[in-house]
Specification:
With 306 residues, this protein is of the alpha+beta class. Helices cover 45% and strands 11% of the residues.
Length: 306
């Protein structure tokens, strides 16, 4: 089943691992962050049933999990159901978590790979995200939206609308795997795009550099920051008030699991609102420097479309 998922969703799709799976393997050094988290097919084949059982017994334990229920409910009834369905599962010794820390990045990283199914070249650029819940962490969330949220965002405006170097830019913080809050370890802010073979990667990087340098060298206009805060607030309330409640329970579970404080969900809006234009500039200057970025060039292996 796992092998079929990998084949269908990744290996047999052009750009199947684009942005979210390839980049961490280049940008990070620690094996826990830098390996293909699906696992190579040979490793999946080599895994034994006893190994799978041992993994389940170690990590799928009540004292290594959180349970979140959200919606219109009778609390007593929910607690009764929880006790009925989960109460008889015994606690087990808590596993020692691996060290996920990364050594400091001191120089730009570059890599190339060939996608056998891709008809056009691709380019990815990534920077490391600041530590969880610091002011820089929230400033980076605003930077993410400034760069790529909507048609008037800076990367879209420059690369798509002004220069016509690509038709879209995708990515962000922890792209396609969750939000900036749903992981407790080293994360990347990654952007990827597909472009014509006639457009050299260095031409695109030059334009990206111009956008990034503007963020690094001068404070964002307060009007831009106000617009981004409004977008974030709207997206946040759309997320937590959705009919299926998934966005709400995901955030509550993340804060409970990683911070032992689900109430942090009530601080998100205020933390973003407190970030100043100068804080955005300082964060960009520190974390979006050229020696802090990773570049991955994807070469096409398929025949281009006519």
């Amino acid at each position: 089943m796992v092998k079929n998922e990998v084949k269908v969703n990744v290996l047999n799709q052009p750009y199947g691992a684009f942005v979210w799976l390839d980049m961490p393997q280049v940008a990070f050094s620690n094996f826990y962050n830098a390996h293909n988290f699906y696992g190579d097919l040979e490793e999946i084949d080599a895994a034994t049933l006893d190994q799978a059982k041992a993994f389940h017994e170690t990590y799928y334990t009540p004292n290594n999990a959180v349970l979140v229920v959200a919606g219109d409910m009778d609390k007593a009834q929910v607690k009764s159901w929880v006790q009925t369905y989960f109460g008889n599962i015994p606690a087990r010794p808590r596993a020692t978590l691996p060290d996920l820390s990364e050594p400091p990045q001191t120089a730009e990283k570059r890599a190339e790979r060939t996608d056998p199914l891709a008809p056009k070249p691709g380019l990815q650029v990534a920077w490391r995200v600041p530590p969880r819940h610091t002011d820089d962490f929230y400033a980076m969330g605003l930077i993410e939206d400034l760069l790529s949220s909507g048609d008037d965002s800076r990367l879209v405006q420059r690369l798509v609308r002004d220069k016509g170097l690509t038709d879209s830019v995708s990515g962000g913080i922890n792209p396609f795997l969750g939000s900036q809050f749903s992981y407790n370890g080293p994360m990347l802010m990654t952007y990827g795009l597909i472009h014509d073979a006639s457009v050299a990667p260095e031409m695109i990087l030059k334009e990206i550099d111009a956008v990034i340098e503007d963020l690094r060298s001068k404070p964002v206009p307060e009007s831009d920051l106000k617009r981004i805060r409004t977008q974030l607030r709207s997206s946040f309330y759309d997320l937590i008030s959705s009919s299926n409640r998934f966005g709400l329970v995901d955030l509550l579970a993340s804060f409970a699991l990683f911070d032992d404080d689900p109430g942090k969900i009530n601080t998100i809006e205020a933390r973003f609102a407190a970030i100043t234009p100068e804080q955005v500039r300082k964060t960009a200057a520190k974390y979006l420097a050229r020696d802090q970025r990773t570049i991955l060039i994807v070469k096409p292996g398929a025949e281009p479309h006519p």
